[in-house]
Design brief:
Layout: E1 2-4, H1 11-14, E2 39-41, H2 49-56, H3 68-76, E3 85-89, H4 95-104, E4 109-114, E5 127-131, H5 137-146, E6 152-155, H6 161-171, E7 180-184, H7 204-215, E8 235-241, E9 244-249
Helix pairs in contact: 5-6
Length: 265
Amino acid sequence: MLIRVIKDALSSLRKAPASTAGREAGGGNAEAPDADADVLTVGPDEDNPLVHWFAAHGGRLTEKWYHYLEIYHCHFARYRGRAPVVLEVGVFHGGSLEMWREYFGPGLRLYGVDIDPRCKAFEAPGTTILIGDQADRAFLAQLRAAVPRPDILIDDGGHTMEQQLATFEELFPHIADDGIYLCEDMHTSYIPRFGGGYRAAGSFVEYGKALIDQLYAWYSRESDQLQVDAFTRSAHAMHFYDSVLVIDRRRMKPPRVIVAGRPSF
């Protein structure tokens, strides 16, 4: 089984300016380098259904880094066949909508968000498309009112720092208590035209590093610098991958020590 990597046809999409990132980069790989090979072989022992879907797909265009498929399957597999609510920011050419419908199965309630009004044409039974700018916090507030609390939120939108920060701050609290937040293409935190740069103040990677402190805020003895907040009380785990951040939501309580057995000395 083969996956064909179309380099030339997508090169212009990879070089889309940040001003149109919500349209061209949404669903694509911002600043993706050319692949070394045109064809990738899928081994017979490959058990990730997303890999097999890519190999067989002939529908609408979608573009992903290959290693994203492993991350998706690792975190999303438990929702297959369970009729989850999935909110994807960044519809692009609509291919990922087809992928999620196949992956999660019947009953999926899928919501797509894009700045390009042409994406409205991708609506189908069980799939709702909302048009707006993910950097517009007023629009994101309307989105919270219009969309049920998602089990999964995928930010594959414009990939600028402003867009990623606004989407996280406005929508992370709206995710279901046992849900998943996933932001991809975070390598734009190192690209100036997306608002990033190595250790640039305001980049989403630097923002994510600060969230690690909040995850551990239960243990802080410096209350003037680090206190338990809403994120501390709602984040169970953070997973940093190459270009991807996944956060597991859960209602958290202060950690407690438990003891069993007799002292040895």
